[in-house]
Prior knowledge:
Elements: E1 2-4, E2 10-12, H1 18-22, E3 27-34, E4 44-51, E5 54-59, H2 67-72, E6 76-79, H3 82-93, E7 103-105, H4 106-112, H5 119-125, H6 139-150, H7 154-189
Parallel strand pairs: 3-6, 6-7
Antiparallel strand pairs: 1-2, 3-4, 4-5
Helix pairs in contact: 6-7
Amino acid sequence: MMVSHSRHLMMPTQEAWRIYRQRPDEAMFFDIETTGLVPEESDITVIGAITGDQPATFVKDVNLHEFPAYVEQRPLLVSFNGIEFDVPFLRAHIPEARLDQPHIDLRFVLRSLGYRGGLKSIERQLGLVRDAGIKDIDGMAAIRLWDRYMQSDREALDRLIAYNLADVSNLKMLLDTAMEMMEDRSHQTA
Length: 190
C-alpha cells in the first residue's frame, strides 16, 4: 500500500511515519464513528480529532458540516485503518473535505513492527489502558450508543464522544511508541 501526498509523491505506507518528525504539532489525529461498515449503507455519526493538544468533535446533525474547514487547515493526517475505512467514509459522506494530505495509517506502521489486530488489541499489547467507563466499548457498542442518543439520551452521546476521543488520544501514544521502535530498529541495523 502506498500513501499519496498532495505533491503527488509516493511513499510506502509503513514509512509515512517519517513525515511526522518534521511537523508533529500540525498532525491531525482522527477517528470516525459510523452506523455500520459500508459507506453507502451507513452514516458518519462522530468525528474526533486532536491537533497539538486541542481536541475537536464533530457530530452528525450538530456540527459535522464544520469538518471540511477544520481538516483543510491540517497538513498531516494520522489514523488507525483510516486509509481503508475512515477516508472512504469521509469521501462518500463529506466529499468537500480535503483529504489529499500525507496520511500516516498506524495500522500499517504497527504491522511493520509485528503488531497485528485492531486498535484496542494493539493498545493492550503495548500496555495502554483505557478508562473504566469506556474500556468495554467497541464499534458495535458505539452504534448502540448513537441509537440511544437518537432516542434523546444525551448521556449516550457524551459516552460515545469520550470513547471516540480516547481512540484519537491513543493514536498519538501509539505513533510515539512506533517511532521509538523504528528508531531503535534503525540504530540496531546501522
